Amino acid sequence: MKGSNGKRLFKEDVYVALPNDDLLAHRDEIDVQELSGRRLITYPRHSRPYLSSMVAQCTAQVEDLVVADIEVLDKSTLLPLVAQGSGIGLVPQWVTEMPVNGVAFVKLSHAPVLQFGVAWRERDASRDSLLDFVQLAREEAKRIDLRFRR
């Protein structure tokens, strides 16, 4: 975007949050077509556009996926709903570090990679506090990336 600058910090895979007793829960990876017939808990487009778009993009080719009438604002709300059997959910990889009893996380194969970054206005690029923040964000992103690449 004109007048702005940015830096990609890290990228993550998409995971499926499933109840532990789901037949797919103990697999290493799941193809999106295998989600057919399951109820999908989603994110509202108006308040979670990135997550909503990710879910739509990942599931566009699934013919009989049942979109549950449940939308959640936060992943910490989604996980207990998955555990109680209300549906499944798609989550960024970092969510797999939030252990919830009754929930298994399985990588979604052939899903788009989620990219996270920071953006700023070019006219602010000379401010020391902004440069310090960007540097701190880059260092934290390296730690996050290393944690998931073990």
UniProtKB/TrEMBL annotation:
<keyword id="KW-0804">Transcription</keyword>
<dbReference type="GO" id="GO:0003700">
    <property type="term" value="F:DNA-binding transcription factor activity"/>
</dbReference>
<keyword id="KW-0238">DNA-binding</keyword>
<comment type="similarity">
    <text>Belongs to the LysR transcriptional regulatory family.</text>
</comment>
<dbReference type="Pfam" id="PF03466">
    <property type="entry name" value="LysR_substrate"/>
</dbReference>
<dbReference type="GO" id="GO:0032993">
    <property type="term" value="C:protein-DNA complex"/>
</dbReference>
<keyword id="KW-0805">Transcription regulation</keyword>
<protein>
    <submittedName>
        <fullName>LysR substrate binding domain-containing protein</fullName>
    </submittedName>
</protein>
<dbReference type="GO" id="GO:0003677">
    <property type="term" value="F:DNA binding"/>
</dbReference>
<feature type="domain" description="LysR substrate-binding">
    <location>
        <begin position="7"/>
        <end position="141"/>
    </location>
</feature>
<dbReference type="InterPro" id="IPR005119">
    <property type="entry name" value="LysR_subst-bd"/>
</dbReference>
